[in-house]
Design a protein that fits this description.
Elements: E1 12-17, H1 24-35, H2 42-54, H3 61-78, E2 85-89, H4 96-105, E3 110-115, H5 122-141, E4 148-151, H6 159-175, H7 178-181, E5 185-191, H8 195-199, H9 211-232, E6 238-243, H10 258-267, E7 273-276, H11 285-302, E8 306-308, H12 316-333
Parallel strand pairs: 1-2, 1-3, 3-4, 5-6, 5-7, 7-8
Bound molecules: coproporphyrin III and fe (ii) ion (FE2).
Coproporphyrin III binds near residues 40, 124 and 279.
Organism: Streptomyces actuosus
EC number: 4.99.1.9
Catalytic activity: Fe-coproporphyrin III + 2 H(+) = coproporphyrin III + Fe(2+)
Length: about 375
């Protein structure tokens, strides 16, 4: 048995994710949960519903999260970290509020949250903090004693997150026909968001020019491209592009879209493209539909060979990274000195979101940040 690892003062980890439907009957209520108050056009909703129905109404996201929970529990057990792991979602069962209630009833008082989103943005960070505040408000109204909740820092540049993606891109390159391989470009993709949200992502000092959201993705893309060049000896040109645009057409979102990018690369004579979905922690419907179905069909129509590289998912190196992040945060909470582990040019992200980080259109209470109304 290895020596026990110490997560004090924390007594539980909560994986906080988006949630997804698990059958055809779930699709419409799920989409209603996602889009309540978000101003998504009806047409867009119908279209996205079809993406889910094409896959039997089942999103891959819940099974991906179950696999990640298994990987985390195995990693913690193998390394003597005695920390129970729970799972709650924003938009589908198991719902965050139910999980948090269960945690409180189990006596958990100091909870660390792992968000299933690696980068700064309203959708990937503050909205989860708002969900935590809503859940705490519900428990408070039920007369339960509230736990203290902290959120782990953004892990986009942690080696345990980046390394599996480097390996994934190498595998996709190797899988391309040899005659097009060395000329292949890499299209790093992430979820498009409104340019106004991108520009205000991260702490105030990062605002402007796509904000922390774009800067963090560019840093990861560069890390992967550099590692691929070092390991193959081939310099594959790359670009950060976007996918899964939603919202009203007159509102600007981040561009170019992956499909337009494939067209443009093809017209420029590029012989092949690897699509690397660095914005997604695991295989979501956006990966299965927008990349594996839509963009792949577009490429076939163009006669452009493409491959889609793997997401991190339940990779054991990611589970080990989560353990590292927990121990780092626990030490820092205990007042011990820590050297946070991070690759790239940006350094380790903040532990506590400052006031004004990734602001919402309409301000709402958010937990686990400097502006939290909860202790
Ligand atoms: C940045 C970002 C992430 C990455 C960070 C993270 O991982 O959290 C993400 C993840 C996800 N988004 C998901 C699904 C959806 N997102 C939608 C709508 C939107 N996403 C947005 C942004 C993001 N979304 C935005 C700005 C909107 C517009 C509406 C709004 O401002 O809120 C809609 C409505 C229909 C549509 O318009 O597409 C759906 C169905 C799923 C589940 C997939 C599955 O089932 O496998 C996941 C993991
Ligand atoms: Fe989304």
């Amino acid at each position: 048995m290895p020596d026990a690892l110490d997560a004090t003062p924390y007594d539980a980890l909560l994986l906080l994710s988006f949630g997804g439907p698990e059958g055809p009957d779930d699709v419409v209520p799920f989409l209603e949960n996602v889009t309540r108050g978000r101003g998504i056009p009806k047409e867009r909703l119908k279209e996205v519903g079809q993406h889910y129905f094409l896959f039997g109404g089942v999103s891959p996201i819940n099974d991906q999260n179950r696999a990640l929970l298994d990987a985390l529990r195995k990693d913690f057990a193998d390394h003597g970290l005695d920390l129970p792991v729970y799972w709650g979602n924003r938009n589908w069962a198991p719902y965050l509020t139910d999980t948090l209630r269960e945690m409180v009833r189990d006596g958990r008082r100091r909870i660390l949250v792992l968000a299933a989103s690696a980068y700064a943005s309203y959708s990937g960070c503050r909205q989860y903090r708002e969900n935590l505040a809503d859940a705490l408000a519900t428990l408070e109204a039920e007369g339960l004693g509230l736990p203290k909740i902290d959120k782990l820092r953004h892990y986009f540049n942690h080696p345990g997150f980046v390394e599996p993606m480097i390996e994934g891109v190498l595998r996709s390159l190797a899988d391309l026909p040899e005659e097009v391989r060395s000329g292949a470009h890499i299209a790093f993709t992430t979820h498009s968001i409104p340019t106004s949200s991108a520009d205000t992502s991260g702490p105030a000092e990062d605002h402007g020019d796509g904000g922390a959201y774009v800067r963090q993705h560019l840093d990861v893309a560069r890390l992967i491209a550099d590692a691929v060049r070092e390991r193959t000896g081939v310099d594959h040109p790359w670009q950060l592009v976007y996918q899964s645009r939603s919202g009203a057409p007159h509102i600007p979102w981040l561009e170019p879209d992956i499909c337009d990018h494939l067209e443009e690369r093809h017209a420029a004579g590029v012989p092949a493209v690897v699509m690397a979905p660095i914005g997604f922690v695991s295989d979501h419907m956006e990966v299965l539909y927008d990349l594996d179905t839509e963009a792949t069909a577009k490429a076939a129509e163009l006669g452009l060979p493409v491959r889609r590289s793997a997401t991190v998912g339940a990779d054991p190196r990611f589970a080990a990274a989560v353990r590292d992040l927990i121990l780092e945060r626990a030490r820092s909470e205990r007042g011990e000195r820590v050297t946070p582990c991070a690759l790239g040019a940006l350094g380790a992200s903040h532990d506590l979101c400052p006031v004004g980080c990734c602001p919402a259109r309409a301000p709402r209470p958010a937990a686990a940040g400097a502006d939290s109304p909860y202790a």
